[in-house]
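Re: that chain you flagged

S.,

Sorry for the slow reply, it's been a week of failed gels. I finally had a moment to sit down with the sequence you sent. For the record, here it is as I used it:
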Amino acid sequence: MNPPPRRRRLEIEEVGEVTVVNFIDKKILDEQNIQIIGEQLFELVDNQGKKKILLNFSNVEFLSSAALGKLITLNKKVQASGGKLGMCKITKEIMEVFQITRLDRLFKIFPDEQAALQAL
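Prediction finished late last night. Pasting the structure tokens below so you have them in one place:
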């Protein structure tokens, strides 16, 4: 038996040199989903050699701490490859989590996609 096809968790769009990633799930809490999202994000850097990645959180309402771990790993991978990682459209609730964990200092966070695209 083949495993069921994995649902896409990300919508990926190229805007100039920047790879814009939109999350399909509103709640990124489930361990299995987080694993898949992590794999799909890491693949952009490891296999596709993307240098400028923008994560657009406009859909996302909830993010678990395990998901934060994936974002930290992604950030390290992007930096190791000499690239840049930006984030935009983060809700107030998720932003609070970033501030509590001091991730707002680690990540480049922009109010909207336009500002992020210009900065990256």
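What I noticed first: The chain has a mean pLDDT of 93.

Talk soon,
D.
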